[in-house]
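Changelog note: in this version the structure field was regenerated for every chain. One regenerated record is shown below for reference.
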Amino acid sequence: MLQRMKLLLRWALLACSLLLVAHLLGGVEVRSFGAALVAALVLGLLNTLVRPLLILLTLPVTLLTLGLFVFVINALMFWLAGWALEGLHVEGFGAALLGSLLYSLCALLIDAAIEAVFNREEGRG
């Protein structure tokens, strides 16, 4: 039950972070909170299923660039989501790169906050 609540909270907060990214960047547009929820779900699926395969296929380039090519892969995932979804629009690769960086930073902060809150709550229970 607790894991499900953490997952739903993370999903909602990631959707909010997509709205924040769209507000901060002119090249990213999210039409509604519902579209942000769908986009967060699709981005999560792309990052879980497609991203590891791309990292494996581009391993030589990633090693040559000392890991910086992973930023390109993240931007491609963000851009692909914008291309595939009607409620998310990403203007170009530059917007995808900045959007994916901001979205990843938000996800990092969200994960840290959720773990801190739920670990504190588990300690009380």
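Spot check on this record: Residues 9 and 21 are 18 Å apart (CA to CA). The first helix runs from residue 2 to 24.
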